[in-house]
Design goal:
Helices cover about 65% and strands about 0% of the residues. By secondary structure, it is an all-alpha fold. Helix 2 runs antiparallel to helix 7, helix 5 packs antiparallel against helix 9 and helix 9 runs parallel beside helix 11. The longest helix has about 35 residues.
Length: about 210
């Protein structure tokens, strides 16, 4: 008796838990030249759909100085992270957004980028410190995703918070609490630096108005 072949439209959980880059390649192969709609991508994922969707959204935002894309991506990430925070099991997105199609070339570029630049993720990430990546830890990650996303939508500040989002996303996908904590740390340091910079600019402006003539 032969065993039925598994459907190519289903991403097995073992693929998710052991190899993020392989999962992205599977999506690219399934999409072919036509690509996949966001609805089709979501339906190919298991309960870790939130993590992978946010990872897919964060990868383009790693490009320094990018404007336009991070602002749109940020709104979607906030929507997804907010649903994680309230405990919704399956990601909800508006129908018009679910019907948007990711081109096959874009999915292939994502998979190629992951294989060449993000291979260290598969080497370093693994299930550990799960209390920080599941249950209450997932909600903690959602809070920091929202905080990181607030700075993504600001012009010219997208790369570092996108790194934080990628770390948090991988932590959720792999159930790796260490990656979640790393993402929280990057977000905290970045927000602190921006806060210090903003405070310095305000103090400098106040000093200038007091001491400069006119």
């Amino acid at each position: 008796m032969t065993t039925p072949a598994s459907s190519p439209s289903t991403v097995q959980q073992d693929d998710v838990s052991h190899n993020v880059t392989r999962l992205l390649r599977r999506l690219a192969d399934d999409g072919g030249d036509a690509g996949l709609t966001l609805h089709e991508i979501r339906d190919r994922l298991d309960e870790r759909a939130y993590g992978l969707l946010i990872l897919l959204l964060s990868i383009p935002c790693l490009v320094p100085g990018l404007y336009g894309v991070p602002q749109v991506v940020g709104l979607i990430v906030i929507l997804l992270a907010g649903q994680m925070l309230v405990g919704r099991e399956e990601p909800w997105l508006p129908r018009w957004l679910l019907n948007l199609r990711s081109k096959g070339s874009w999915l292939k570029a994502m998979a190629d980028f992951a294989e060449t630049k993000l291979g260290w993720i598969d080497r370093l990430s693994r299930p550990r410190l799960r209390r920080f990546a599941d249950g209450p830890g997932e909600k903690l990650a959602a809070v920091f995703m929202i905080l990181a996303t607030v700075t993504i939508v600001m012009p010219l500040t997208n790369t570092i918070p996108s790194i934080a989002l990628a770390l948090l996303s991988v932590g959720l996908i792999q159930r790796d609490g260490l990656f979640v904590l790393a993402g929280c740390a990057v977000t905290t340091v970045w927000l602190t630096l921006l806060g210090a910079l903003g405070t310095g600019l305000l103090m400098g402006a106040e000093w200038a108005t007091r001491w400069l003539p006119g």
